[in-house]
Recover the amino acids of this structure.
């Protein structure tokens, strides 16, 4: 087992690369989920504001001339 971990004296380099790649992948997933949650919250806020204003865009287009 020690031979597998040492990888012919390149073990430190190989395992540190594996660790770095794993860290980047975890960070990528975490930041993606956080960004998605922020965008969903922002969209919900915009929808709530639009609903509370009774959608002024439609009221302008339906006013009589």
């Amino acid at each position: 087992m020690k031979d597998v971990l040492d990888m012919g004296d390149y073990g430190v380099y190989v395992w540190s690369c594996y660790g770095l790649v794993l860290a980047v992948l975890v960070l990528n997933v975490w930041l993606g989920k956080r960004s998605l949650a922020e965008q969903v919250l922002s969209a919900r806020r915009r929808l709530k504001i639009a609903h509370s204003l009774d959608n002024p865009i439609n009221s302008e287009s339906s006013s009589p001339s």
Q: What stands out?
A: DSSP finds three helices and no strands in the chain.
